[in-house]
Amino acid sequence: MMETTATRATPFERRDGVLLVGGIPADRLAERVGRTPFFAYDRALIDQRVGEVRAALPAGIELSYAVKANPMPALLQHMAGLVDGFDVASAGELGEALNTTTPPHRVSFAGPGKSTAELRQAVAAGVTVELESGNELVRLREVGELLGIRARVALRVNPDFSVRGSAMQLGGGPQQFGIDAERVPAVLAELAAADMDFQGFHVFAGSQNLDAESICEAQRATVRLVAGLAEAAPGPVRYLNLGGGFGIPYTSRDRPLALGRIGENLAELLETQVRGLLPQARVVIELGRYLVGEAGVYLTRVVDRKESRGRTYLVVDGGLHHQLAASGNFGQVIRRNYPVALACRDDAGEGETVDVVGCLCTPLDLLADKVRLPPAGIGDLVAVFCAGAYGLTASPTAFLGHPPPAEVLV
């Protein structure tokens, strides 16, 4: 599918035509980093986005950061001062979260397939383990008994509804994520017999959703579901993770999420249902991509320019081994270009149609298909936007043995 424009609007500014990241011109930042390609994350843009979310959310809603979106250690240290907690999905992410100032009881550990070793680490650290199956409960009970520690535990629920508009469905129907809602009462009975420190529930039904009303509908359904499940709980619900799924616009066809509508819905839910039905619950919204995705840019340099049977290719020193999602190979059904631009030239008056391709020996290594850019040559910097989430750590960095890119927070 052809994209005839180089990029949709991005939050990054320019000075004299040069892209600014953290107030630094992109060409100067490249010299400071010392090599290309690299990822750069703008802390001011992260602060701005978190501030927007805080302003939209009603008092009484906590904000948690999903570390899987971007686990860069410096970024996590920065996020620790902005959010109320972290959600992790591996022992590696757990270790990075615990290296910040975030207290362990504000860290939750979700994800299927946790190893027994990971459960031991989580229980020893005192984080909340979100159970994904009955078998995981058995292993967690054994770990707690072995360590002499009463494990903090919540149940991740696979709801009996799905969320329309989500790019990736994580709930409803058969799933590897969570415990089917109809099985939860039986698991709660086993949990009570195991004498664990029950915290509450986590329901996350879908991700990358730009439809505010769909998200609101899912939040309302989640509260109804948890209120019913709470009747079988071994104690009061003290933790209610409503998930997130807030999407960001990647293409010119996408429209930004109406954040205010979600805030209004949450305020109504708190007032009319949660405070009456689950009075002890701290309510959490868990976001990753929405907080950091648009604050990142991947900068890569043109190393060759070639013509082939009527098409122009800009060959860059990066590629899908660093930015798999931008190549369309990370869940896209119909490939669409991420926002792409020349970092040091912003001349809308002239342009050419080009393909931006990486340095790997595969036709899948396509960062931009038929985009309009100002005429570019060897040495020019290409910026791939929306690179702050699911970039480096979601990519096959070992493929073909190229060196890893740098990451900087500026």
From TrEMBL:
The keyword Ligase does not apply. Keywords: Pyridoxal phosphate. InterPro entries: Ala_racemase/Decarboxylase_C, DCO2ase_PEP1, De-COase2_CS, De-COase2_N, Orn/DAP/Arg_de-COase, Orn_de-COase, PLP-binding_barrel. Residues 45-292 form the Orn/DAP/Arg decarboxylase 2 N-terminal domain. The keyword Membrane does not apply. Its cofactor is pyridoxal 5'-phosphate. CDD domains: PLPDE_III_Btrk_like. This is Pyridoxal-dependent decarboxylase, exosortase A system-associated. It comes from Streptantibioticus silvisoli.
